[in-house]
């Protein structure tokens, strides 16, 4: 028996004893040892995906139980609004990732990891992964709030006590909170690596290919939303800097400043010319 039916026989250098094919389970296992390099590489990538996912779940659990739970006990130090600013929707992310890792583990083939079909898991969760958008957009606010609290000793000692109680490595809280931002960017890299070592005949090939595109789209969508929010912020700041603003807010109709520059305004019939600054938005001038 060949473990991986997609590979030609020549790719299995290990012969079964006596040169005869053995269809017993031990024969299967012996042939399994003669995996191709590509299969071995695929096994390595699958193992990495599973192990990093388990580490990540542990990391999220530590933040939710080691920090958020402790902070909620101290209403004298933190308001719920403040916790929302610092931790964003990390608890939603934790719930989502717990389901995702279970789905991955179901698809994991312990005996022959290279045969695991994990592509469908990413496809199934691509919509749920969009919750990272809210987290990534909020992250700069979290950093600002934490740097403000870092100037107050009681907060510094409190966060350090949380870390030690939860037996977490020696990194500051803002370092821990960066992990989800890095994680969502890492998925396309892992899937690209997985696709590289997946034969086109492998049952997982089409799903991994689709999953790679899906996760690139998720990352693109998150970047796009972040860019849009930054644009809206810029317009709000721009408008507030103008004295005696009249009429409705620019943001009622527009969300992006496309171009700005000087133009000459000519008024008829005297053909009087005046220099004016013009601002072109996506829905108005």
Automatic annotation (TrEMBL):
Q: Where is the DH domain?
A: 41-225
Q: Which SMART domains does its entry note?
A: RhoGEF
Q: Where is it located?
A: Cytoplasm
Q: Which GO terms describe its cellular component?
A: cytoplasm
Basic and acidic residues biased stretches: 12-23
Hydrolase: present as a keyword of the record? Answer: no
Show the GO MF annotations.
guanyl-nucleotide exchange factor activity
- Matching Gene3D superfamilies: Dbl homology (DH) domain, Pleckstrin-homology domain (PH domain)/Phosphotyrosine-binding domain (PTB)
Q: Does the keyword Isomerase apply?
A: no
Xref: CDD domains = RhoGEF (cd00160)
UniProt protein name: ARHG4 factor
Q: Which organism is it from?
A: Syrrhaptes paradoxus (Pallas's sandgrouse)
């Amino acid at each position: 028996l060949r473990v991986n039916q997609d590979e030609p026989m020549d790719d299995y250098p290990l012969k079964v004893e006596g040169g005869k094919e053995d269809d017993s389970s031990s024969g299967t296992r012996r042939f399994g040892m003669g995996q191709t390099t590509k299969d071995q590489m695929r096994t390595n990538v699958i193992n990495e995906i599973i192990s990093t996912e388990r580490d990540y779940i542990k990391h999220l659990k530590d933040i939710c139980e080691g920090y958020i739970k402790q902070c909620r006990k101290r209403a004298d130090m933190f308001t719920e609004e403040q916790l929302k600013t610092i931790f964003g929707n990390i608890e939603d992310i934790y719930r989502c990732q717990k389901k995702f890792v279970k789905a991955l583990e179901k698809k994991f083939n312990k005996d022959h990891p290279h045969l695991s079909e994990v592509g469908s898991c990413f496809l199934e969760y691509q919509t749920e992964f969009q919750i990272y958008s809210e987290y990534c957009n909020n992250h700069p606010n979290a950093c600002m709030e934490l740097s403000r609290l870092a100037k107050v000793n009681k907060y510094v000692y409190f966060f350090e006590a949380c870390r030690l109680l939860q037996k977490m490595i020696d990194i500051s809280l803002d370092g821990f909170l960066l992990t989800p931002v890095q994680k969502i960017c890492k998925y396309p890299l892992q899937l690209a690596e997985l696709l590289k070592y997946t034969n086109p005949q492998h049952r997982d090939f089409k799903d991994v290919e689709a999953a790679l595109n899906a996760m690139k789209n998720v990352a693109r969508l998150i970047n796009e939303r972040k860019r849009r929010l930054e644009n809206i912020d810029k317009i709000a700041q721009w408008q507030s800097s103008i004295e005696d603003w009249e009429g409705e807010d620019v943001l009622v109709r527009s969300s992006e400043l496309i171009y700005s520059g000087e133009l000459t305004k000519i008024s008829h019939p005297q053909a009087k010319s005046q220099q004016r600054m013009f601002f072109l938005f996506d829905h108005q001038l």
